[in-house]
Amino acid sequence: MNSGAGASQRVVRWLTLPRARAHAVVVIGVFVAVYAFGILRHRGFIDAFGHIIGVDLLAMRTGAQIVLDGHGADLYDVALQETYWRMALVLDRLPGMSLFRA
Question: Taking the model in full, what pTM does it have?
Answer without folding.
Answer: 0.56
